[in-house]
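Sequence in, structure out.
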Amino acid sequence: MDQLTQYKGSRLIMRSLLRLAVLSVGLLSVPSASAVMRSPSLLHSRDGSACSNLSTSITSILSNITIYVSEDVTANQTFDALGTNLTATTDYCRFGANVTTSDVSRFTFELYMPHEWDGRFLMNGNGGDAGSVQVSEMNTLVGAYGVATASTDTGHDMTAANDGSFARNNTESAIDFAYRSVHLTTVYSKAIIAEYYNQSVSHSYFSSCSGGGRMAWKGVQMFPEDWDGVIAGDPAQWTPHLDGHQYWRNVMLNYYGAPGYVTADQFTAIGKEVYRQCDQDDGLLDYIITEPARCHPDYSAFSCTNTTSPFFNSTNCLNDLQMETFITLYSDWHFSDTGERIFPAYLPGTEAQMGQAAGGSPFGVTGGYFDYQVLNYTEYIEPAWSGNAPILINGTNVTLAQLESLIRLADDINPQSNTAMDPDVSGFFNRNGKVIHYHGAANGNIPTGSSLVYRDRMISKMGDAAAESYRYYQVDGLHHCGGGVGPVNFGQQDANTLYPLDAKYDIFGAIVAWVENGTVPDYLIGAMYNVDDYVGTALGTAGGFGGGGAGPGGGGVGGIGGGEEVVVANTLNFTRKICPYPLTARYTGGDWSTYESFVCN
């Protein structure tokens, strides 16, 4: 199995595998979540009767709200939540309601409040075009952290993935999606929490990735009072440029039938060659490209005119036009008339996800944005993406120059204030709000450089305030929000039950410690788990775990981290420091599989 093979299945499968391993072999020195994350002085208890009472008391407090559920669930109880079958992780009050925002728009949200509450509120965001309440993640979070947690569908029920038609001839619905539903869910949730516990929220947080990363920054920019700490992952915040880039990549550059079309299999082979050239640049053969922006592979190795790579031959090498396509993808995209950069390039090491560019059709989010929010079309014309001429917007052939004009138009009008690129976040920083921002360095969906664009603009605007309240982490090997080969599990999204819930191993623990205790996150610790045959074999033979070996048949996990990690035999591959940018984790010698062998410099 090759080095760029993605994990088999989702992180949910990974968590299930680990739980099975826990049952069979047990844990080694695992601190309880309550001991790490829940201060006894913050715990508030509530019984079941208070939950049912909310169905009448809340309507007298909040306007435009229609409650559809207000009931207690008990630990291990199975129940249906908006069509998803859940098993409750703890005892909590499940509250759900619809909120009317105009004559033509409304949104749905749910709020889960544990019987044993730590005083905190955590708002969850949504990826892509949203369209569903994140009930599964909420159920995980309420049990893992003891927080009250909420999520919204952002104003539409999306049965098809990334269907932007919710905004068709409905500006109000687009506003709900852009910012209003997340803001009001936060405000309403705090009021409901106070009513339920007879106690106000002590600290409020937001965490999400991709489209949810955009929501994170949008809230910081527009509603600085909503949250005290924010985790913004791989944010899709530069909407006109990101969506334009998705079209340019998939359709204008790489549509079916084009002489320069690069196949998914070719991207896989390219990835192997890039790793062969770049992996050891940091002095360590570990199947991770450290600081990929500093890697400059010799692309001629997979050209048909000069094939020198062991992964290419006369049947899969790239012809001249294919080479042009590939090199263009890995170069910044600029406006053809002014030379101004439209969007940054993909980095070496993103090839595992770049196969999606070989489909010839754009990522679903992009079509709805240009059709219904920028151009405000009221009738949808199904595009024909395959063929020799890319059909782009609302059934119309669009040239590259016209696509550039659309991006400029979207910049000018910023429909429904969807974009989240305002560098002035003084309102949030002035009240001592904290932001942890991360982006996968192997992200083949949203190029890593897009986060750097905003980071640089924001730091330039905010100066010393950013140094006090903001940290950016560029995670080597991380794909889009999750997955990859590297220290890719650090508590983000639903990867929060795999290791200790503290400020080093868990990103939510890090933001809590920073906000509430002033503990600056000088580094995080990411973990790589042995859920893929290749990763287990390759990384096990690359150094092993202190004599035990982590690959199939390995003898154990060794003594990593002084017994502080959630370590299950034959499942943990390695841990590594994730350093605040521009620092990076440098190997200092010794056991490469433990974060203690790395320093941030």
